Amino acid sequence: MSKTILITGGAGFIGSHLIELMVRKYPDYRIVNADALTYAGNLENLSGIDKAENYSFEKVDIQDVAAVNALFDKYAFDGVIHLAAESHVDRSIESPTEFILTNVLGTVNLLNAARNSWGEGAEGKLFYHVSTDEVYGSLGDTGYFHEETPYDPRSPYSASKASSDHFVRAYYHTYKLPVVISNCSNNYGPYQFPEKLLPLMINNIKNQQSLPVYGDGQNVRDWLWVGDHCTAIDQIFHGGRVGETYNIGGHNERKNLEIVHALCDILDRKLDRPEGKNRELITFVTDRKGHDRRYAIDSSKLQGELGWKPTVSVEEGLEKTIDWYLANQEWMDRVTSGAYQGYYERMYSGRE
Ligand code: NAD
Ligand code: DAU
Questions:
Q1: Number of domains into which the chain is organized
Q2: Of the candidates 82, 311, 288, 85, which has an alpha carbon nearest to the alpha carbon of residue 189?
Q3: Of 83, 253, 256, 263, best ligand 2 pocket probe by most atoms within 8 Å of the beta carbon
Q4: What is the pLDDT of residue 350?
Q5: In the chain, which ranges are continuous DSSP H helix?
Q6: Which helix (H) or strand (E) holds 278?
Q7: Is 31 a member of any domain?
C-alpha cells in the first residue's frame, strides 16, 4: 500500500460516498474508516466495498482520547480526511453539548494525535478538515460566501464547526501541522439520513404524510450533488495547497419551497398521482430558531486552482435522488425502524 488514509465519519452520508470513491479509485491506498456509529452512522451504506482488501473499519468515538491515540498507534497514517461530526442543525438547537464534544473536542483529539504521530513539519502528511458554509452565517438577497468572508455562525451546529475550523488553522500556524479545510454547501443524494430536508420530504410524500416547511419556505440553500462534493474532496486532498481553505458549492440556489414543489411534482408523475396532488400535503410550520436566510457559495478559487466543476444540475440530481429512494425502500424502512443499528453486531461480533 502506498499510503494509509484515515477517513472519519465514513459510515455517514457524505463519508460513505467518499469511502466508496477512494477505495475504488485508489486500490494502492489503505483506507481506514473510523466511526462511532451514532444514530447517523450506517455501515450498510458501505456494503458495496466493505469486503475490499484495501478497506478496514474501526469503531472509534473521536471524543475518546485514548481510543483516538490507539488508532494512530495502530496505523501509521499518511493523511486524515475528517468528516465525523454531529451534523443536524435542529438537533443542535435541542441539545448543543454533544456538538461541542464531537465537533470541537473530537477534532482537537484528532489534531493532537496527528501532531504526536507526525512531529513538527510533517513533510508529505495532510490533515484535511471537512467543514460547512454555515460558518459564514446568513446572506441577504445578493452576494456569495468566499474564503475571506468573516465567520458569523448562528446555530450551535455552525458555532461548533466554526470553532473546529479555528482549531485546525491554529494547529497550522502554531505547530506547522499541514492542514487544509473546505467549506461546502448543502449536499443531497442517496444514503442521506431522513432528518434532512430532501429525504424527509421524499419519504413523507411517498407515505402521503404532511410536508413540514419551516417559516415561509423562502430560505435559500445552494444544493450540491454529494458525488460532486466527494470529487472536490479528492482533488483538494491531492492538489490543494497546505494551509488553504477552499469553498465548494453547486451554483444551484433554490428556495426551500421550490425544492419541495419540485419533489411533489416529480413524485406525482413517478407515483401516478394526479397533477398537484402531493402539493396538498405542504404544511407551513413554526420556523427554525435563528434560521439562516440564504447560503450561496463562490467556488471560483477551487475551480480556478484545481479545475473542479459540479457535474450534476439540481433538476437531474433530484430525479436521481428520488429514483434511488424509490428503489431502496428497504434502506429507508431499516433506517426509520432502527434495524440498521444491529448491522455492526451481526458483522463484527467476535472479530475484535
Ligand atoms: P452525517 O450525520 O450523515 O454523518 C456523520 C458521521 O459521523 C456518522 O457516521 C456518525 O456515526 C459519525 N460520528 C458522529 N459522532 C462521532 C464521534 N464522536 N466519533 C466518531 N464518529 C462520529 O453527516 P454528513 O452529512 O455526512 O456530514 C459529514 C461532514 O460534512 C460533517 O463534518 C459536516 O459538518 C460536513 N458537511 C456536511 C454537509 C451536508 O450537507 N450534509 C455540507 C457541508 C459539510
Ligand atoms: O449548508 C451546509 C449544511 O447543510 C451542512 O453543514 C449541514 O450538516 C446540513 O444538515 C445542511 O444544513 P441545513 O440546515 O441547511 O439542512 P436541512 O436539510 O436541515 O434543512 C434545509 C432547509 O430546509 C433549511 O432552510 C431548513 C428547511 N427545512 C428542513 C427540514 C428538515 C424545512 O423547511 N423543513 C424540514 O422538515
A1: 1
A2: 311
A3: 256
A4: 65
A5: 13-25, 65-74, 89-94, 97-99, 107-118, 156-175, 197-206, 226-239, 256-270, 300-306, 314-327, 329-337, 343-348
A6: none
A7: yes
- The Cα 352–Cα 161 span in angstroms is 32
Structural domain harbouring 91: 3-189+224-251+293-312+344-348
> At 172, which CATH number?
3.40.50.720
For residue range 12-61, what is the model confidence (pLDDT) as tens digits?
999 999 999 999 999 999 999 999 999 999 999 999 999 999 999 999 99
Cα separation, 233 vs 169, whole angstroms:
18
* Nearest alpha-carbon partner for 182 in 254, 121, 120, 230: 230
Mark whether 86 is an active-site residue. Answer: no
Residue 302 lies in a domain: yes
Among 161, 216, 221, which is best to mutate for testing ligand 2, by the most ligand atoms less than 8 A from CB? Answer: 221
C-alpha cell at 286: 413554526
| Residue 253, ligand 2, Cβ within 6 A | no
Write the CA distances from 65 to 61, 62, 79, 110, 112, integer angstroms.
9, 7, 19, 8, 9
Ligand 2 centre and the CA of 215: distance in Å? 13
For residue 210, with 0-12 CB atoms within 10 Å meaning exposed, 13-18 middle and 19 or more buried, which class applies?
exposed
Residues of the chain with pLDDT under 70: 121, 350-352
Output phi, psi for 9, to 5 deg: 75, 25
Does residue 133 have an active-site annotation? yes
**Three-class DSSP category at 307:** coil
Domain presence at residue 334: no
- Alpha-carbon span 286 to 263, nearest angstrom: 21
Whether residue 240 is contained in a domain is answered as yes
From atom 34 of ligand 2, which residue's Cα is the shortest distance away?
A: 213
Grid cell of 326 as nine digits: 424509490
| 89 contact partners, CB below 8 Å, separation of at least 6 | 134, 155, 157, 158, 288
